[in-house]
Specification:
Blueprint lengths: L27 E2 L10 E2 L5 H5 L8 E6 L2 E6 L4
Amino acid sequence: MAKTHSKLKLTTGKAPALQPTERFYTVGYTPNGGFSNPRPQLTIKGRWLEQIGFYAGLPVIIKVEQNKLIIELAMQI
């Protein structure tokens, strides 16, 4: 007989964790030595980039649309 507050334990392995399809970043400024009119910058980093095929040294293309940036690997022919 089961104990009063026992829980069923599954014997199957853990399901792979789903990767989020959105990431949230903040646009900052490039340090410019205190001069006026600093340039905005966006830095994207994390191991998740490797998990989706963006490895260090690979060229990318950034497409600009209305309120949107699309980053793709540059296909080399």
